[in-house]
Specification:
With 257 residues, the chain is mostly beta strands. The chain folds into two domains: 9-132, Jelly Rolls; 134-253, Jelly Rolls (Sandwich). 5% of the residues lie in helices and 51% in strands. Strand 12 and strand 13 form a beta hairpin. 32% of the residues are buried.
Length: 257
């Protein structure tokens, strides 16, 4: 068994009144080709983002309310919303009055193979803005989780090459059983009220709300939550190659019949 630490960063969510915006790189250089930036902006700030050639970008809005303007269309942002500009080259982000909008910007550098694969993806996956509230996304089950756990796919694969995301939500006592996946890198983002423990090989770490951690590649890992506490986090899968996406077949879609 390895004794690798579990890298974790706590996101700053409280600011003095005179601070209008905050940004920082989070877990820098943890995963090759992946950059995570954390932003918090108040109402007077208009944040303009331009697409970067050779990258695909995901925005995860975790706290506060606001608006994203993309291609002259407005998208209402509430806590726990995902947004992908896709081919839109410029977006603006603003917080609602008397609100501070908190979000992560996850940028993935595309390989030559990714660029080729994008051409084969369904057009509506790559040409249109992707926008959804987490709780409106497709639920699924998984053998390593209890029947009490609600899991959702918030970013299906075949939208951004070698990437998928979802949420896990339950009340303790409960757990995500020990498992390993050497074919993918993984980040966890703690959402509102999340308060659980993450284990990887011989290491363990407290996992609070509004924190981001990296599961060591290839480690045997699990998550547990104590009685009456909340487990609620986003998992972000970054596959080493497209063959690794076969892992997602362990997620069994719940039909709405």
């Amino acid at each position: 068994m390895n004794a690798r630490n579990i890298p974790i960063a706590n996101l700053k969510v409280q600011f003095p009144e005179n601070i209008q915006q905050h940004s920082e790189l989070v877990l820098e250089n943890e995963i090759e080709g992946i950059q995570v930036e954390y932003f918090a902006i108040k109402h007077d700030v208009v944040k303009t983002d331009l697409s970067q050639q050779g990258y695909k970008t995901v925005y995860l809005f975790t706290k506060g309310t606001g608006t994203v303007i993309a291609a002259d269309k407005g998208y209402d942002i509430v806590p726990e919303t995902i947004f992908l500009p896709n081919i839109v080259e410029k977006i603006t982000i603003t917080a609602a009055k008397n609100s501070t909008l908190h979000y992560l910007k996850i940028s993935s550098k595309l390989t030559d193979q990714d660029q080729k694969d994008l051409i084969e993806f369904p057009t509506d996956h790559t040409q249109n803005v992707y926008y959804a509230k987490f709780t409106d996304c497709q639920p699924y089950t998984e053998e390593i989780k209890s029947p009490n756990t609600v899991s959702r796919t918030i970013l299906p694969n075949k939208i951004i090459p070698r990437m998928a995301m979802g949420t896990v939500q339950t009340i303790g006592p409960d757990q995500v059983g020990a498992h390993e996946h050497p074919m993918l890198e993984q980040l966890f983002l703690g959402l509102s009220k999340n308060n659980c423990m993450v284990y990887a090989d011989d290491s363990e770490v407290e996992f609070p709300e509004y924190s981001l951690l990296h599961i060591p590649l290839g480690s045997r890992h699990s998550v547990s939550v104590e009685k009456d506490e909340v487990m609620y986090y986003v998992w972000m899968d970054f596959f080493l190659d497209k063959k690794g996406e076969e892992w997602l077949k362990t997620h069994k879609v719940i039909n709405d019949n």
